[in-house]
């Protein structure tokens, strides 16, 4: 058996709370977001896992979630690699806009297409496919080799950067991945086979808070 890969979406951010498109903007966690990160960390501690290394994005909300989780499993200060390859999808011209205001400006149908299509980017931004195009090579070169070498790896990132990874790991179609929402602060524990396919997957918490 190879190692273990744990994926966690950051806890609620201030802009999640305000219903704003966030993307590469850098708001902090809310009090609830800190609670969600702590809950995810406690779930991992109860699961009995510790990590060899952690990866996170260049954005505060993911980094703080990562730090909180590591504190909960007794590994504060563990080597953590930060890289913008794991950043949230870039929403371009939508970044910072309230989702209702965006609908008023561009129309409900157009905003829905940008949010929920696989390969149609918003103006100046990235589609889910574009996000995958930077996440997948980083995963293959930096993260997967460590898991296949038997390490236990934590990745604390974002809804869309993690959806790109889950799409590959769970072998989901373009249609299936668009329906998948990842809950904030809920760890997904993957054990991988030597050929990098998934041997098992455990979700440690309630996926009903996905949005």
UniProtKB/TrEMBL annotation:
Its EC number is 5.4.2.11. One of its GO terms (biological process) is gluconeogenesis. InterPro entries: His_Pase_superF_clade-1 (IPR013078), His_PPase_superfam (IPR029033), PG/BPGM_mutase_AS (IPR001345), Phosphogly_mut1 (IPR005952). Gene3D superfamilies: Phosphoglycerate mutase-like (3.40.50.1240). Substrate binds at residues 9-16, 22-23, 61, 88-91, 99, 115-116, 159-160. It catalyses: (2R)-2-phosphoglycerate = (2R)-3-phosphoglycerate. It comes from the Bacteria. It is an enzyme of class 5 (isomerase). NCBIfam families: pgm_1, PRK01295.1. Homodimer. Catalyzes the interconversion of 2-phosphoglycerate and 3-phosphoglycerate. PANTHER family: PHOSPHOGLYCERATE MUTASE. This is 2,3-bisphosphoglycerate-dependent phosphoglycerate mutase. The gene is gpmA.
